[in-house]
Automatic annotation (TrEMBL):
EC number: 5.1.3.6
Enzyme class, first EC level, given as a word: isomerase
Assembly information from the UniProt record: Homodimer.
Catalytic reactions on record: UDP-alpha-D-glucuronate = UDP-alpha-D-galacturonate
Protein name as it appears in the record: UDP-glucuronate 4-epimerase
Pfam families according to UniProt: Epimerase
Family named by the database record: Belongs to the NAD(P)-dependent epimerase/dehydratase family.
């Protein structure tokens, strides 16, 4: 019988080979995990870099208003010499003793019209606006385009950007500020109260802080509102009537603005004039206002809600045409006295004023609709309902004697004439698609 083959040698060899394989494979594993680790690290770094560049803070609430501010307000940081040149050029007056005016809210309805009027008479105008999305920003962009044709530059930025404001005051010696930037609209305050606090209170204070530190300090004319009369029942509304019963947060922030203005006048010698506008309307107007969305809805065949008061009376407004308001703003600027502070300190008592700028003839909203029907040649589908408690007041009526006495303010446009201009401009100049594409 043959003896079994001697396998002891091959077994040793096999063990040796398997040992070598294990060492190699663990070396390979170690090497490949190093490569893998480096690749992961690299990818992570690329991702962190990418997200840092594109990071947008999440809105604090679903009603957050979008502004391009985070990315662009500080357009000035990268703007450099060209940006400064535009700022200087736009704000340089072209008439002897002309003003140099910073118009905040220049891409807004009233801001655009005032900027045009000031530039037309030879004043220097620099705009500031954050182009927020409270209403379709493409309308603000369209206004900006028109202003640019007249060499009016709008700096894109927020009232709360102190660095930007200080920079503007470093570059330009503003003789005046026409402060119109604000969160407007009465009803929206129930949806997004913070936006009113940010723009109408914090933003206003920020502007006043920068203005008080400027040397020389500018004179400031700013937009308050007829809404401060709130639940006041005396008619017509006079500047001497009580304004301590606001019916909306919007009104409360405007009233707060009036008190804040008092403080900055008292402590720092800033010359401050507040203007209480009464339902301003006209070409390039605001899509959130009744005359604007009624026009849109009537043309689209939609039913419009017409409010009556809790006591079944007609709701009425002292509708004021934009050209009259612009004249009032310019009258206030022309009669504004210089601020008296310097180095942040008051040197003498300074001017502090408040004026109504209205039309002095309230019109029921039903009448507004019938004027629109005849101008558009379309019958409106109406739904009359009780006014909800959303901040609206039943009636406004301005007494403008004070503005007349101090700067000759005299409204001259009745509602039919003004609406005719609005409709004509809406249909032709403003490109009516802006009206029609607005969401209901
Ligand atoms: N239109 C009216 O009937 C009426 C009535 C009473 C008072 N007002 C007041 O008049 C002023 C102008 O009103 P409007 O009708 O032209 O409104 P608007 O909304 O068309 O204009 C305001 C502009 O300010 C800008 N803005 C808002 N917050 C800003 C911020 N924090 N920083 C920079 N820009 C900001 C907006 O983008 C907008 O372009 C407002 O202060 C408003 O409260 C208007």
């Amino acid at each position: 019988m043959a003896s079994p083959p001697d396998t002891s040698k091959t077994t040793k060899l096999d063990r040796y080979h398997s040992y070598i394989r294990r060492i190699n494979s663990s070396k390979f594993l170690a090497a490949s995990s190093k490569v893998l680790f480096r690749v992961i690290l690299l990818v992570a770094l690329v991702l962190i870099f990418f997200f840092t560049l594109n990071y947008h803070p999440l809105p604090e609430n679903p009603h957050h208003i979008h502004t391009t501010q985070n990315l662009l307000s500080s357009a000035f940081h990268g703007g450099g010499a060209d940006w400064e040149k535009q700022v200087r050029h736009s704000s340089t007056p072209r008439r002897p003793k002309g003003f140099s005016v910073l118009v905040t809210g220049a891409a807004g309805f009233i801001g655009t019209h005032c900027s045009f009027a000031l530039k037309k008479r030879g004043d220097g105008v620099l705009g500031l606006d954050n182009f927020n999305s409270y209403y379709d920003p493409s309308l603000k962009r369209a206004r900006q385009k028109q202003l640019a044709k007249h060499e009016i530059f709008i700096v894109e930025g927020d009232l709360n950007d102190a660095e930007l404001l200080s920079k503007l005051f470093d570059i330009v010696t503003f003789s005046h500020v026409l402060h119109l930037a604000a969160q407007a609209g009465v009803r929206y305050a129930m949806e997004n109260p913070q936006s009113y606090v940010n723009s109408n209170i914090a933003g206003f204070i920020n502007l006043l802080e920068v203005a008080k530190a400027a040397d020389p300090q500018p004179s400031i004319v700013w937009a308050s509102s007829s809404s401060v009369y709130g639940l006041n029942t005396k008619n017509p509304f006079s500047e001497s009537h009580r304004t301590d019963q606001p019916a909306s947060l919007y009104a409360a922030t405007k009233k707060a603005g009036e008190e804040i203005a008092h403080t900055y006048n008292h402590i720092y010698g800033l010359s401050l004039t507040g203007l209480r506008f009464f339902t301003v309307y006209g070409p390039w107007g605001r899509p959130d206002m009744a005359y604007f969305f009624f026009t849109k809805d009537i043309l689209q065949g939609k039913t419009i809600d017409i409010y009556k008061t809790q006591g079944d009376k007609e709701v009425a407004r002292d509708f004021t045409y934009i050209d009259d308001v612009v004249k009032g703003c310019i009258g206030a600027l022309d009669t504004a006295k210089k601020s008296t502070g310097s180095g942040g300190k008051k040197r003498a008592p300074a001017q502090l004023r408040i004026y109504n700028l209205g039309n002095t003839s309230p019109v029921p909203v039903g009448k507004l609709v019938s004027i629109l029907e005849s101008l558009l040649n379309v019958k409106a589908k109406k739904h009359v309902i009780r006014m909800p408690r959303n901040g609206d007041v039943p009636f406004t009526h301005a007494d403008v004697k004070l503005a007349f006495k101090d700067f000759g303010y005299k409204p001259t446009t009745d509602l039919t004439t003004g609406l005719r201009k609005f409709v004509r401009c809406g249909l032709y100049e403003m490109r009516f698609h802006l009206l029609l594409k607005m969401p209901s």
